[in-house]
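Structure request: Protein GID8 homolog isoform X1, Elaeis guineensis var. tenera.
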Amino acid sequence: MSLSWIILGQLDSIESMSTSKKVITRDEWERKLKDVKIRKEDMNKLVMNFLVTEGYVEAAEKFRIESGTEPDIDLATMTDRMAVKKAVQSGNVKDAIEKVNDLNPMILDTNPRLYFHLQQQRLIELIRSGKVEEALEFAQEELAPRGEENQSFLEELERTVALLAFEDVKNCPYGELLDVSQRLKTASEVNAAILTSQSHEKDPKLPRLLKMLVWAQNQLDEKAAYPRINDLSTAMIEDPAI
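Returned structure:
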């Protein structure tokens, strides 16, 4: 991202100046932006990386055809990965586990934390459905033995089982476990594990670049007044506050 490098360059050039803030005009800022050359191929790779990592199969295929950018992973495996993710997000955890094992049984065999979280999600779904006896039996047979071997697993299990002690589980101290965000968290963890097993980065590069931009702007704020991006969703550059 060219803007990040411009900001970092400005930081270096201001280091030796006085403590008073330097004012960088919009014209000067835009002139520096134009001086930075970014290849279209690199931008296309960045977009493809995001689509592949996040699992937008159809969009990735269309972008491949339109831009000529080849993904660094077989798009067919994306379909399988998204089927796993969708199963977790819809609460069909048992189905998700079977799909993961079909993809690569080593994923769960070598990742006990992930397997525990999937089984924990199964327990949450049983509690959500009001299957109290089945939930207790499942917790005792599948999760308790793992909790005895790992203190953090035991603590998570205790929080989950505690849901059964409340009539209004959604408003109890651990009600967030029943929130959709818990499913999304587990699905994201599975997605990352599958990507890692395929020797692919588990996180897209674009969000990291945006974090770098925010960090660089915060650093430059202490030394200069300059056109900055306040809303990342629009990427509009606003005039410096003087």
